[in-house]
Amino acid sequence: MRSKSQQMCAAAIWTACLVTEIHFRSASAQLNFPYKKLAISDGQLTTPQLITKYSYPEETHKVRTADGYVLTVHRIPHTPTEQQADDRPPVLLLHGLLGSSADWVIAGPHKGLAFVLTDAGYDVWLGNARGNTYSRRHDYLTTRDKAFWNFSWHEMGVYDLPAMIDHVLAVSNKPSLYYVGHSMGCTMFFVLTSSLPHYNSKIRIMFGFAPAAFNSHVKNDLFSIAQFSRVGSEVDSLYNSEFFPNNWMRGRLVQRFCRDGVPTQGICSSVLFLLGGLNSTQLNTTLLPVIFSNFPAGCSLKSWIHYGQQMRSGRFRQYDHGTALNLKHYGTPEPPDYNLAAITAPDVTKLYRALPNAVGLFRVPLSTFGHFDFLWGLDANNLLYDFVISLMKRF
Fold first, then answer.
1. Residue 21 host element (H or E)
2. CA angle at residue 378 from 373 to 383, to 5 degrees?
3. Closest among 146, 6, 174 to 165, alpha carbons compared
4. Cα torsion for 353, 359, 365, 367, to the nearest 10°?
5. How far apart (Å, rounded) are the C-alpha atoms in residues 49 and 51?
6. For 81, what's the count of Cα atoms within 13 Å in the CB-facing half-sphere?
């Protein structure tokens, strides 16, 4: 989504579960540090492999939500030269719509935010919301069941985030954590802290990259289509399906057509700009095969439609099922607004003004800084990450 929010980093200070499966990966057999140019074969690597390739340790944690989804959270506990991370403060990173934990490591060491934060002394956790590549399990449903896909980012906020936050704090033995969200990762956070305000006290400071809540201003063709989606009992169940899933065939195609030196690489760039808006000057085209091998990572169709509803109404509120189903779900003909007053913070100016405890609203000092540049921008480190770390050290 392309808007002024893509050029802003909203930061807010906040006042205010289970450990089931943990897999540890050793980096001893991986490539030596320092950072090497990403190879085309990197598009075939998973998030853990993209981490351990550069000798960083990685842990894969499985977290169950209260409604039965099994989420994958990846952890980088310390740098390649350290043995443990006892005193490192935890930071949880959450991806945007159609994203995954891979988004934070695709750019590699010194560039990807997950590596930058690890090098700066943080215990880094990379979350995956329900329905993406790494979170496709449920206690009794499969991805072939329509009921599996009966969710939007509301459920991610009230179920996924609490489970991940509680897990991170339990494993790290810390009372609070830092939080960084990109786009939908911010939306989920606003849902959580407005719906379950006691979670405010578990957050030291939250950074919102291109935060999405009030979306009537967004100029993006893909998301503009969503605002014309119908609501009502006759179509509600039809929306219980997957949206833009990842698959091996696309991975093979992008390895061939998006790499450096082929004339079709420009098409790949255009597709990324279609999804994120703006012909950014910050795009590292060498990364395109790796980006498109991991992104889009899949989500529910209702998550996309829910954003369309926000664009149509200009309000930050729960999912609109149509009058009859709204009465059943909420007891009112219209879906209720999220109570931003319960949040102790940030999106763009409208949201910033609505939140009572915001540290500030910061514009990235580059007019062409686009939606995905928060993740993969050539100069994201200097333009954004260094500033974020300086604020983290203050809180």
1. strand 21-25
2. 70
3. 174
4. -20
5. 5
6. 5
Q: Which of 20-29, 149-158, 322-331 has the lowest mean pLDDT?
A: 20-29
Provide the 10 A C-beta neighbour count for residue 232. Answer: 12
Average pLDDT over residues 241-257: 78
Tell me which of 61, 74, 154, 371 is the catalytic residue.
Answer: 371
Among the listed residues 176, 183, 293, 303, the single catalytic one is 183
Phi, psi for 31 (deg, rounded to 5): -65, 150
Mean pLDDT on 351-362 = 63
Q: Are 201 and 162 in contact (CB under 8 A)?
A: no
Residue 183 annotated as catalytic: yes
Contact (Cβ atoms closer than 8 angstroms) between residue 115 and residue 109: yes
pLDDT digits (tens, 9 = 90+) for 43-64: 789 999 999 999 999 999 999 9
Average pLDDT over residues 317-322: 93
Interhelix angle 184-195/161-172, nearest 10 degrees: 90
**β strands within 77-191, DSSP E:** 90-94, 123-126, 137-138, 177-182
**CB neighbours (10 Å) of residue 339?**
12
For the entire predicted model, the pTM comes to 0.85
23 is catalytic: no
Query: What separation in angstroms does the CA of 18 have from each of 134, 153, 173?
Result: 17, 21, 14
**Residue bearing the bigger pLDDT, 206 or 273:** 206
At 51, the amino acid letter reads I
How does pLDDT run across 67-89, given as a tens digit for each residue?
A: 999 999 999 999 999 877 678 99
